[in-house]
Structures are given as structure tokens and as C-alpha cells.
Amino acid sequence: MAPRILLSGDPLGRLNQLFKRVNKSAGPFDALLCVGQFFPDSPELLDEFLDYVEGRAQVPIPTYFIGDYGVAAPKVLSTTSRKAENQGFKMDGLEVAHNLFWLRGSGKFTLHGLSVAYLSGRQSSEIQFGKYSQDDVDALRALAEESGVVDLFLTYPFLNFVLLDEIGTVVVLFYTNEWPMGVTKRAAVADIPADVSDSSCSDFTVSELVMELKPRYHIAGSMGVFYAREPYLNVDSNHVTRFLGLAQVGNKNKQKFLHGLSPTPSSTMSPSELSAKPPNTTLCPYNLQEGATESKKRSNESDSDLQYWRYDVAKRQKNGSEGEKLCFKFVCSGSCPRGENCHFQHNAEAREQCRRGVCLDLIIKGKCEKGPECSYKHEFQDESIQRKPRSENANRSRECWFCLSSPSVESHLIVSIGESFYCALPKGSLVDDHILIIPIEHLPNTLLLSPEGESELSRYQNGLRNCYKSQGNDAVFFELVSKRVSHANLQVVPVPSSRARLLPNIFSLAAEKLGFKLVTNKFSDSSDGRKYLQKEYNAALGLFYVELPDGTVLSHTLEENEVFPAQFGREVLAGLLKIPDRADWRNCKISQEEEAKLAEEFKKQFQEFDPCQ
């Protein structure tokens, strides 16, 4: 049975009225999705709103919101962000209260089989809440390259304006909410609400994202009216998109603010079902060229361009013009919807480097400043794009964070060196005894080893197992094998033996929440598990795997162009160990002196188990 979803326009804190209407709807419904401003716009409604947030009133249905702006929003959302259960990688909503979830920034998740994407707030770098960042926009553009169809796209376009007096003092600050630019074009004039014109719909960033994501339904609020546009065709896709604009809850004009849907998930539909086109279907209303022209009227360097193509190619010329910048979209995907109208370079060499897994910052800026946490390659795969020709080995030595000959290697973290491998503490370790097993040779993964290398790796694994066991812990090994990874590192984390039995379930549940499944196999000998992984590994696709203490191997073969969360293994273990605040390694940074002290302490613990002593 298809899921039943309720959609709501701006609640504006009027949760009593919203949930009363929800309870009267012809349910039951599986979830409520709110677009537009969720928080109150005046203090008078704050007590009613906080009753639900603080648990004095019950939210009757799982409710998700994106309009993270209004009275009390900073206080409520700051508290929400600090909750232990909301730490780590979460795109399916941060829990504010029972049945109430905040969709922060941007993301995509699966809800009752439906693929739901969202973009929340207005673009700003100066406020903490009620905003989206450039990284949020770029993340959605990356999601557009993934396989599969987005069923629902939720947006909350929200722009702010400031009026200044003659000496620059702010005298008026006001806000306006806008639908995507061009949404009413090619639509039946009789159906367009009286107060809506194309000139009032001028959020070009959302128009671009909708063209790229091609959702089946695009839902927005904040214009104060209800509007169900005719379906329209998508460029380079067989399915249609339906736009729904919803009014504010409790609006005086009695405009519709609650709408029910029961869409069949696209993942279960046949190609013919998905490509069905109603008789009133129109052409796509959005025009990128017109949007670019309008954006240029606003400034010499368009806001849209800054969002779409944000990297300067300083390596081309010291004073590079607009034409000397690389098109971010083309480099990432190999195509650009603006085509010949794009004012930025469609450089095939740069695209090829990106396709081979080279760090974007290295390609476009000439250097990467992220340090060891960057999981992309830091050497060019084709010398034609480099500033100065250099040998492959010299390039690796200079750019790779894990090559022992590299000036960037953090030698104070090394705890053991063998013939084929060395062991080191990672930067920002999850726990004190978190270890990386790293091949000395510049290898992309640990599944492509010589027999001698495999033998030494096995000895290191057994040594770490025994070391951890002496402290009442078991060892968990995991590795992401991907084109993005230049130099392999097999991560090893100790977990209390009493909690090891929970590992298979917690990994599988975390994978399901992110929309993929882990294949489970159990082996009596760890070497058999490694042989299985080597057989499963496909160099063209990639692989994530976990080796558990009981001989179970969990694995997931990455699909082509799949964007796999690089910190997935760490985030799952952070949850198991009840230290969710350490899921992000950047929260765990310590001084070099403290790192060196931890390394020395582990050396002493590992000495009697070290196979290379």
C-alpha cells in the first residue's frame, strides 16, 4: 500500500490549529511534512508552541519541518543540536520532541519508501538558524547525480532585505518569501492565484535545483496562497514534476494549507508508470538563460554564479576574468544545463581529474587545505593539468598524507612500523586506542596485497585483537574502498566485549536509515573473510566493509556515482559507545603534544603484541 502523507504550509507556531485539522483529516496518515515558517512570528503564540516542544502536549503524527526561523527558534534548535541522539550524520531529521523532527540545511532520506529531499531557510553566512549554506546547495547538486528519482522536494525560499540610512545604520530589516523563478510560466493563467505573478517568484537558486533534481513533487510555502500547478516535463527525464504551493495555517482568506498525498514510491514503479503524462502536462517552466540575465542585473558578479561556480582558477592567470573560472557543475558531473550560455570554463581535463577521484580543491585552487581528513586523491592522474611536471613518486611524496616519505606525514602518531605496513593513531581519534593500519606502499586499498603483505596485515590484526582483549575489549576493523581514497587506511576501534554482540544490528540499522543494505557473511577464520572481500571487490565501483569480532563480515558494494558517507563506520561506533559528540573527528582535536603522549602510551601497551618488535 502506498504511504499516506500530509503536507502543510507555514504553521507559524499555530500547532493547536494544525494538529486539530490533522486529527480531523481522513486518515490515518503516515507523516506530516511542513514547509514555510514553522516557528511563531509573534511572542503571543510562544506558550502554545512550547507546549509541544517541551512535551506538555503531544504531537499526534511524525512531523518533519524545514522552516527553522521565528520566535524562539535559536534557543529551541540550539538545544536540539546538542542532544546526544542528534549527533553524527543525520539527514532524516533531528528530534526536537517526540514525533517532531527538524530537517536542517539540506539532505535526502527515505520516508516510508519515498525519497525525500529538502532545502531549508535562506542563504546566509551570518546567522546560525533559518539559513542554508553553499555546502547545502552543493550537496543537493551532488545528490542530483545519484541514480533514482526524488519523490518529494521540500523548499523554504526566504530572502532578507536591509534598508540603510545615509550613514549606513540599519533602519529597516524585513523578510520576503518567494517561490522558484518561472514556476508560473507556461501554466494556465486561470489557475494562477491573483496575488501571484512571475515577477514575485524570483528564487533562481531553487529553480536551478529543481531542474537538476527533477522531483515528482515540489512543495513550497510562504506565499500565502494555495497553488497546484499543472504537471510539467523535465529536461532529459521521462517523468513529470508537480508543484504545490501551500498557504499559512489559519490564514484569514481561508486558503488551503493542508494537502494529502498517497504517492507510490518511484523505486517500486515500472518505467511506464513513472513516465505517465496527464493530458494537461506543460513544458518545463524554468529557463536558466533568463535566470542568469536577471541575476546579472542584480550585481556584476551574480549571486547565482557564486552559488553555482564558486572556485577561482588562480593557476590559469593571476588576474583571471570570469571566463578563467571553472564551471563547478561541469567539473563534478561532466555536463552543465547552461551549455554554451555558461560564462565559465567547461574544462575536460579538470573533469577527468575529478572523475578519477582527485580533490576538487587541488584541481581548482591548486592546493587542499583540509589536511588528512580529506579522503580524495592529492596527486594528479595526468600531468597535463599540473602547474609543473613532476614524477609520479615525487608527486606522491609531496601530496599524500600517509606516505612515510611525505613531508606532510604526522610521524609523532606512528606506533609501529613493519615491512609492508605501519600503524598510527588518527588525527582526532574516536577513542584513545583508535588505530590506523596503513600500507607503506602507496596503495588505494588493503584488498590488493601481495601474499607477503596479506600475511603481515593478518599479524597486525591479530596483534591488535590480543592487545584489546587484554583490556576487556574486542577489535572492529572497517575500510572504505573508493576512487576517492588515494592511500589506504584500515581503521581499528576497540569496543567493550560486553557490547560486541550489538554490532551487527547497529550497523545494519544505520545503513537502512541511510538507504542502503549491508550484506552479512560469517566466517570461522578471518582469512576466509578477507578472501571473500577480495573476491567481491570491483575496482570500478568500490566497497565498504566491516570485520566484526565474531568473524562476521558486513559489506556494501558502492553503486556507480554513489555518494557514500566517508565517516559512516566511525559514526556508527560513536553511537554504540555512547559518545556521539565524538562522531566528527574535528570535535576531538588535541594538541600535538597530547597526540604524542597518547602514541607513546599505546606503544607501551602494544609492545608485547606487536608482530614487528
UniProtKB/TrEMBL annotation:
A GO CC term assigned to this protein in UniProt:
post-mRNA release spliceosomal complex
Annotated C3H1-type domain residues: 321-349, 353-381
Biological process (GO) annotations?
mRNA splicing, via spliceosome
Q: Which regions are flagged for Low complexity bias?
A: 262-272
InterPro entries from the UniProt entry: Cwf19-like, Cwf19-like_C_dom-1, Cwf19-like_C_dom-2, HIT-like_sf, Znf_CCCH, Znf_CCCH_sf
- What are the boundaries of the C3H1-type zinc fingers? 321-349, 353-381
Q: Region labeled Disordered — which residues?
A: 257-278
Single GO MF descriptor: zinc ion binding
Keywords, comma-separated and alphabetical: Metal-binding, Zinc, Zinc-finger
- Top-rank lineage group of the source organism: Eukaryota
Name the UniProt record assigns to this protein = C3H1-type domain-containing protein
Species annotation: Arabis nemorensis
Per the UniProt record, the lineage of the source organism begins with:
Eukaryota, Viridiplantae, Streptophyta, Embryophyta, Tracheophyta
